[in-house]
Each structure stands twice: as C-alpha cells, then as structure tokens.
Design brief:
The structure holds two protein chains of two kinds. Chain A is α/β, with parallel strands linked by helices. Chain A folds into two domains: 5-113, Oxidized Rhodanese, domain 1 (3-Layer(aba) Sandwich), CATH 3.40.250.10; 152-386, 3-Layer(aba) Sandwich (Rossmann fold). Chain A is built from 17 helices and 13 strands. Chain A has an eight-stranded mixed β-sheet with strand order 8-7-6-9-10-11-12-13, with helices on both faces. A five-stranded parallel β-sheet of chain A has the order 1-5-4-2-3. In chain A, helix 10 packs parallel to helix 11 and helix 10 (163-173) packs parallel to helix 16 (318-335). Chain B has one helix and five strands. Classes of the chains: A alpha/beta, B alpha+beta. Chains A and B meet through strand 10, helix 15, strand 12 and strand 13 of A and strand 3, strand 4 and strand 5 of B.
C-alpha cells in the first residue's frame, strides 16, 4: 500500500535526531562547533537566515552535499521553516553517510519570532540582479561577492591616465563607494588616454568630470570627490575614511612615498601602477605582508633621470592596460579571491608586448616597514625626492 | 657565459634602441661591465660612482632581485636573463 505524507514524515522522524530551537541557540552560544544547513528555497533564504549557515536548498541536496558539506563527520544541524523539510533532508544526509545529523524543530519561522540571532542577506534589486548577472554566475563572485563589491570603499589617487580606466571598471563592477582625489582640470591633451573625460568636460575639475561619467555608468556607485592635491596636510583626513583598498595612479615620486608611508601606518592595501612612455609596472603592497614601495625603491631617481609623462610622452593605450590591471587587483582584494601581486612586480613592455613578473622581497632594514623603523611620521617628501 | 641583458625604455637611447643585448660575463657585475664596453655611458645609469646598484634601480637575475642574491657578484649561467628595472612614477 502506498504511503501517505503523514506516514512518510512519521517514519522519517523516527529515524533522525531532532533538536529544539532553545537547545540549538544555547549550543551555538556555548561555542559548540556546529555546521548549520539551511535547506529552504532561495527566496526564503533572502528574507534572512541563522548566521553562518550553509545554504543548500533541498532540491539540490543530494547533488551539492558533497561540495558544500565535504566533512562527513561534521556535526550538522539542518533547518527549514517549520521542521518538515529539514527532517527529510536530515534523513537523506544520514543515508549519504553523514554521521552526526540533527534536524531543528520547528524551524526558522519560530527562531526569528523568538528573537534568536538572524542575519539578512544583502537585498538586490531586480535591476542589480540584471546588471551584475555575469558576476552572479561566477561562483568566485556570486551574490556574496557582489555584496562585498557594493559595500566596498576604494580610494583612487588620480583621475588621470591610470585613474580613468580603473575608475570606469571599478564603477562598472559595482564597487559601492569610490573616493577620487585629483586637483586638476580636464585639458584637451588628456583625452588621448584619460577615457573617463570628454570634450564637454575640458576646463572642468577632473573629479567632477569623473563623477558625471560614473553617475551615467552605474547609479549604484557613490562618489566621494576630493578636488585637491594629496600631501602631508590632508592625507590623514582623506585616508582615515575607512577605505578597503587604495589604487595609486599618481604621477610623481614625492606623493608615492607619502602614500606608502601613510598606508603602512594606517594598514590599507595599495595597488600601485606606474607608467613611462611604453612601459608600465604594477604591484600590490599589503602592509606587513610583503615588501612596501620603499623596500622596492629605497630612493627616487633624480629629477633629470625621471621625466614625467608631460615631459617624456606616454603611449595613450598604455595607462589603459595598467589601470585595468590595477582595477583587477582591487576587485580581487575585495572579493578575497586569487593571488594578489604582493611580493611580485609585473612589468609590461608594450613595444615587445611582453609581461614579466619579478619576485620582490621585504627589506628588513626598510626605514618604514623594517625591523627598526627610522621613519615614523611624515617627512618632507619634496625635499626627500629633491636631495637624491 | 652568454647572457641576455634587458634594457628598459629610458636607457635604450644608449643602446641604439636595442631592447636586449646578448653578451658574455660570469657574474651580473661582469655582464654590466661588458655592457658598458659595448655601449659607453650606460653603467652610470645603473651603478653609483662606488660601483653599487643605484637605489632607484632594481636588477633582476631571471626573476630574482640581486640584492637578495649575491648582488653584483651573483654568478650567471648560460641563457640567464638580467633585467634592469628603474623606478617610474608616471600616472597621468
């Protein structure tokens, strides 16, 4: 005789362990190592879940258990809305060889009503689900990653050759807050490479022009403009705004050393990019995890050996390549994915069309990040760079 | 030892535009001496008057910074590449 739903449920409940919500809450608070498995549907999950749960909808349970719950001996507590789906799911997990499975009874509905801890995932709008759909398809990004991007704060130093492409791609990727510092106005000679600006912006402040382009590209992005030149007098005010990553697209040595020192003291990762004529360099400095800019270049070159792009020229597409590589690094750091370029210098030679990476090392005698630092506050950076 | 010296763009005016120079030398320092003999004027763009690597230039033997090997005394093997990488600061 065919079994009814009630028969099946009763049979399954007889074969699994159940845990009350009060017990479960006490055990979590007591620090017991439990893997919570939420077997509800995606739209239910979006309304909220118990913190640190693994989301494994019941429809995908058998298929995804192996990848999402790799340890068969882990202590699992399965929950759903009211305790029925979790009971069936617990039985399946037992049958699949999981040795310690419990089903929460009843479930999330009452858990929430009792005021036990919950967490609501980031609520994407329909427009966002569409806009970021290519990211959401990547398991390495997904909704969690896109949420990180939307909540991230990146400070761009310069809205010029490097800053323009970086800012465009970071904005397109949905980095939620972009600080942009640049004290310059758009000049017609910038348009050969600074693709964030345009004819109608000539003469306007670069930060305003960049903000205007980004507003049209992605309304999710909040721009914090700094229409000024970075120096020792404003670096604390600007850097102390909770930035996750700094993208350094500056155009001179004194400010690069200032950024290095400040970022180490404030513990902010810096994605460094620099260009000269046909060559570019990219590396990532993560404070106290590898070398800093001073470990790489203890001193700047004398001015006559280091002409600026305005003096020596620069191939227009070059900053595009380097700026986009910097944006890639920033996105990876925010997502916590892949291997950033810390401890590696990427050199790009556009004429040879060659990329080479070199190993960089932390210098124990570095005056800022070494064992016995001798520079512990801002110095006269212009003087430091003029006296070499 | 036959090694390849990779010349950065700013120094190519001294090598007649050549981006790579193949020459002989048993150490990194010897290779730079040989480079100077072939293209006078390039040594002072890489080494100080006391013969030390300038602080704004890095020399890599293959992908290792010679500061963390034996400096200019680092021995080279046939087929090695020595890259001269100066600091650049452009961004606009």
């Amino acid at each position: 005789m065919a079994k009814t739903y009630a028969d099946l449920l009763q049979e399954v409940k007889g074969q699994i362990k159940q845990v009350t919500l009060e017990d479960l809450n006490d055990r979590i608070k007591g620090g017991e190592s439990i893997t919570l498995v939420d077997v509800r549907e995606k739209d239910e999950w979006r309304q909220g879940y118990i913190p640190n749960s693994v989301h494994l909808p019941r429809g995908f349970l058998e298929m995804q258990a192996g990848s999402k719950l790799p340890d068969k001996n882990a202590k699992l507590v399965v929950y759903c809305a009211g305790g029925v789906r979790s009971a069936f799911a617990a039985k399946v997990l037992q049958d699949m060889g999981y040795t310690d499975v419990e089903s929460a009874n009843p479930g999330y509905g009452q858990w929430k009503d009792k005021g036990f801890p919950i967490e609501a995932p980031f609520a994407f709008t329909d427009e966002q689900l569409d806009r970021y759909s290519r990211h959401l398809l990547l398991p390495e990004v997904g909704e969690k990653g896109q949420q990180k991007l939307l909540q991230a704060r990146v400070l761009l130093l310069g809205a010029g050759g490097l800053g323009a492409p970086s800012a465009l791609y970071l904005a397109a990727a949905g980095v939620g807050t972009l600080g942009i510092i640049d004290g310059d106005h758009v000049d017609a000679s910038n348009l050969q490479r600074q693709v964030i600006h345009g004819m109608d912006r000539v003469g306007t402040p670069k930060v305003e022009s960049a903000a205007k382009t980004i507003a049209n590209l992605n309304p999710d992005v909040k721009i914090i403009p700094f229409n000024e030149r970075l120096d020792s007098s404003n670096v604390d005010r600007i850097f102390d705004m909770g930035w996750d990553v700094i993208v350094d697209g500056l155009d001179n040595f004194p400010t690069r050393y200032l950024v290095n020192d400040a970022s180490i003291w404030k513990n902010i990762p810096v994605v460094h990019g620099s260009i000269f004529r046909f060559d570019g360099q990219v590396t990532t400095f993560i404070p106290h995890q590898g070398p800093c800019y001073r470990c790489l270049y203890p001193e700047p070159p004398p001015a006559h050996l280091a002409p600026s792009c305005a003096e020596a020229g620069v191939l227009g597409v070059l900053p595009g390549v380097i700026g986009v590589l910097q944006a890639t690094e920033a996105v990876k750091i925010i997502l916590g994915q892949g291997k950033p370029l810390n401890g590696r210098l990427l050199q790009y030679d556009s004429l040879d069309m060659a990329f080479r990476t070199f190993k960089l090392r932390h210098d124990k005698s570095c005056p800022v990040c070494g064992d016995k630092p001798t520079i512990t506050e801002y110095i006269d950076y212009e003087g430091f760079c003029a006296n070499v | 030892m036959a090694v390849t010296l990779r010349i950065p763009t700013p120094l190519r005016t001294l090598t007649g535009g050549a981006d790579e120079i193949k020459l002989e030398g048993a150490t990194v320092g010897a290779a730079i001496d040989a480079l100077e003999a072939a293209h006078p004027g390039i040594r002072e763009r890489v080494l100080s008057g006391e013969g030390k690597v300038l602080r704004f230039v890095n020399i890599f033997l293959n992908d290792d910074d010679i500061r963390f090997l034996d400096g200019l005394e680092s021995p080279v093997k046939d087929g090695d590449a020595i890259s001269i990488v100066p600091a650049i600061a452009g961004g606009r």
